[in-house]
Automatic annotation (TrEMBL):
UniProt main location, coarse: cytoplasm
Chain's gene name: ybeY
Cofactor note: Binds 1 zinc ion.
N-terminal signal peptide: none
Any one Gene Ontology molecular-function term assigned to this protein's record: metalloendopeptidase activity
Transmembrane portions of the chain: none
Gene Ontology, cellular component aspect: cytoplasm
Regions annotated as coiled coil: none
Keywords: Cytoplasm, Endonuclease, Hydrolase, Metal-binding, Nuclease, Ribosome biogenesis, rRNA processing, Zinc
Protein name in UniProt: Endoribonuclease YbeY
Length: 161
């Protein structure tokens, strides 16, 4: 799987966390590729940004006037099956607010890396056709998120593998 990480703000690339950030994203995306059978030609783009930037996108595309933590834009959105198989090259885009990652990690009492991993797999699952609009779908998506996170050792504080 090809993973393209980009930065809305070039100063993020000078952040001490840059290497950690990209390692976490790479690890999560590669694990998703393995578990969900994404072929080597599958490609995902991830943009890391500020709250202001994701706020504008959230308002524009979802008509929600506040920043969010992650947005996903599947290139095959609306198609019945979602992912088209291992020959599909471009899957879509995931936008993650690094400010929200930091805020939520503190709020939920776990590491920056765990929150980033969670938001990355959450975005990936949306790209692959999962959603959480109704309770049954939300439960299924949460089960998939936790499955991937536990496989990689990103457990919540107090949880055991």
């Amino acid at each position: 799987m090809n993973i393209n990480v980009n930065y809305e703000d070039p100063s993020f690339q000078q952040d001490l966390y840059e290497q950690v950030i990209e390692q976490v994203i790479e690890k999560v995306c590669q694990e998703a590729a393995l578990v969900y059978g994404l072929g080597p030609n599958a490609e995902i783009s991830i943009l890391l940004c500020h709250n202001d930037y994701i706020h504008k996108l959230n308002k524009q595309y979802r008509n929600i006037d506040r920043p969010t933590d992650v947005l996903s834009f599947a290139l095959n959105e609306g198609e019945e099956d979602g992912y088209d198989g291992p020959d599909t090259a471009l899957l879509g885009d995931i936008i993650i607010s690094l400010e929200k990652v930091r805020e939520q990690a503190e709020e939920y009492g776990h590491s920056f890396e765990r929150e980033l991993a969670y938001l990355t797999i959450h975005g990936m699952l949306h790209i692959l056709g999962y959603d959480h609009m109704v309770p049954e779908d939300k439960a299924e998506m949460r089960k998939e998120e936790e499955f991937i996170l536990q496989r990689m050792g990103y457990v919540r504080k107090g949880e055991e593998l």
